[in-house]
Amino acid sequence: IYSLDFSRAPFGMLLRRKATGTVLLNTTVAPLIFADQFLQISTLLPSRFLYGLGEHRSTLLHSLDWSTLTLWARDVPPMESFNLYGAHPFYLMMEEGGDAHGVFLLNSNAMEVALQPAPGLTWRTIGGVLDFYIFLGPDPNMVIQQYQQVIGFPAMPPLWALGFHLCRWGYGSSNETWQTVRAMRNYQIPQDAQWNDIDYMDGYRDFTFDHEKFASLPSLVEDLHKHGQRYVMILDPGISSTNPQGSYWPFDEGLRRGLFLNTTQGQPLIGKVWPGFTAFADFSNPDTHQWWLENLQRFHAHVPFDGLWIDMNEPSNFMDGSEDGCPPGELDSPPYTPAVLGNSISAKTVCASAKQKASVHYNLHNLYGLMEAKATASALIQILGKRPFVISRSTFPSQGRYSGHWLGDNRSQWKDMYYSIPGMLSFSLFGIPLVGADICGFSGSTSEELCTRWMQLGAFYPFARNHNTQNEKAQDPTAFSPAARTAMKYVLLTRYSLLPFLYTLFHRAHLQGDTVTRPLFFEFPQDVATLELDRQFLWGQSLLVTPVLEPGVDSVSGYFPRGVWYDFYTGSSVNSSGETLKMSAPLERLNLHVREGAILPTQKPGTTSEATRGNPLRLIVALSSNATAWGDLFWDDGESLDTFERGSYSYVVF
């Protein structure tokens, strides 16, 4: 289906799609540069419709107007034009006529991708090799499936992972945390999991809890379990290094076994994170996975957590490099430094020269979050014997096999709510379907209107968690007026009623790499009007979500591709020729539409996924214009390992 031609002068190659003659790659446009610490290759692109290349805060469709995207894992609140928490050197390209292809550069070094209006693209990396995978689709869904055949299909999450999660930094005590859980139950607002941020720890040290302020934590977790709910807490990879010898097992034992990142001198590299001075666990060493498991087992004996939230794993460091800076040399001061935030590859992380078991940090930096997630998922399987639930901040290709992702430390602003949609859709392309942003915003003060609109959107993030920073007023649903609270409860009940549908979408993602949330152009690749849309999205093929993303409005405009669309709540239909329609959107309403020809399995919602599971199932049938419809349902016990592989499930086609 393709032809590959080599040219000697100018040196390069041309890749063509045979069916259309479209040239997908033409690397003769600029010289190939191939040095040890500087590799560069350029290509012309067949169109301007380019997506992917994470992690960045931007529109879904990238601008080719001389923008440079840097890939180097960095702890920074998301802002435009900086390298963020993860690295995903993959792009999806839509060609004229609706065909699609993808390109993946398997390289973990610091990298820049320079986009040019030609249209053209330059890959520039400071290590490794040029190892390209080309996926020829020809449909965008197939490109993403083919990409995941290489990097691995995402893990099947437990059903409770798809419920509503609640968290904040600064509850201050387990009793205050418990109060919030009780208030949620009191108002009968759905909640599957309660989380804690770093304030549960004793002195911000991993594998400890504050025996004064969080004395009742074990009882709280027991109470959650009694009510069919789950508990998740945060863990950081920086291990406190300043405790008296013999008083903090995680550090003493890690030191004894030699499991930390070392300086070029062979001593543990010491940086600074929440607990103060810290050493950093080396997850490229298999022995570290065993030590991580033992620490988690010891903690689980006191606080029987159900899932883990791994943060700060870029890895983040409050110092540049280490307490002693970084040594001179080609790793810490390479001949070429990509356009990273801070203008140094050791900015707010560890020295690139740091030694790890598998290689130097220079090569492993972008893999740190992936390796930690792998250790964490493996430990959870051994401790619980069930499907692991892990949410990670730093990510790399194949992360979806081990964890989900949240979009980091956003702000309580309308534009942050909008940017969460292209963020979520991009991670769908990266094979990490379990993704969402902090609902109502992490830093800054939310407003009742913003939080209500954001809860409506967030109820349709695959991973739905409301999270807040310390010293801000509460923003959980119980903190607002009866009207806002009711609107939030209503949209969460809508989500819970759709859990059978959402769970089935995750099964299809796990089985064959289908996306869960997807951009409209995935379903309508021939419709050029869909190529730039990122203020709406689909669940699967058939549920269209059109959120309100600005203040002070009671209507919203959305694009409806050609065909019949039914209002999810009323069943009234609109027959679109491919047009933008204005719809009523009072504060209590989220516009949801079902595509003709779809059958959605639903369930009478309860206040937890466990309660919902026992309720009657219902079908929503949206007949096509020729009176046909199709849908499916995957159902199992919601938590056991490998149910599909073992045949312990029901799969029903309607």
Describe this entry's structure for a reader.
It is a single chain. The protein has 654 residues and is an alpha+beta fold. The protein folds into three domains: 2-151, Immunoglobulin-like (Sandwich), CATH 2.60.40; 236-406, Glycosidases (TIM Barrel, Alpha-Beta Barrel); 510-653, Immunoglobulin-like (Sandwich). Helices cover 23% and strands 25% of the residues. It has 14 helices and 36 strands. It has a nine-stranded parallel β-sheet with strand order 22-21-20-19-15-14-13-24-23. The longest helix has 17 residues, at 368-384. The radius of gyration is 24 Å and the shape is globular. The mean pLDDT is 98.
Helices and strands, with pairings:
Blueprint: E1 2-7, E2 12-17, E3 23-26, E4 33-35, E5 38-44, E6 49-54, E7 67-71, E8 88-94, E9 100-105, E10 111-116, E11 120-125, E12 132-135, H1 140-151, E13 164-166, H2 174-186, E14 193-196, H3 217-226, E15 230-235, E16 238-240, H4 249-257, E17 271-273, E18 276-280, H5 286-300, E19 307-310, H6 361-364, H7 368-384, E20 390-392, E21 404-406, H8 414-429, E22 435-436, E23 438-439, H9 448-458, E24 464-466, H10 482-497, H11 499-512, E25 517-518, H12 520-523, E26 537-539, E27 543-546, E28 555-560, E29 563-567, E30 573-576, E31 579-584, E32 591-595, E33 598-603, H13 609-613, E34 617-622, E35 632-635, H14 643-646, E36 650-653
- Secondary structure class reads alpha+beta
**Strand residues, percent:** 15-25%
What global shape is seen?
Answer: globular
**In CATH terms, what is the fold-level topology of the largest domain?**
TIM Barrel
CATH superfamily name of the largest domain? Answer: Glycosidases
Note poorly predicted spans: none
Q: How many structural domains are formed by the residues?
A: 3
Number of strands: 36
Classified by CATH, the class of the largest domain is Alpha Beta
CATH architecture of the largest domain: Alpha-Beta Barrel
- Biggest sheet strand order reads 22-21-20-19-15-14-13-24-23
Radius of gyration: 24 Å
Oligomer: single chain
Termini gap: 35 Å
Count of DSSP H/I helices: 14
Main beta sheet, described? 9 strands, parallel
Mean pLDDT: 98
Proportion in helices: 10-25%
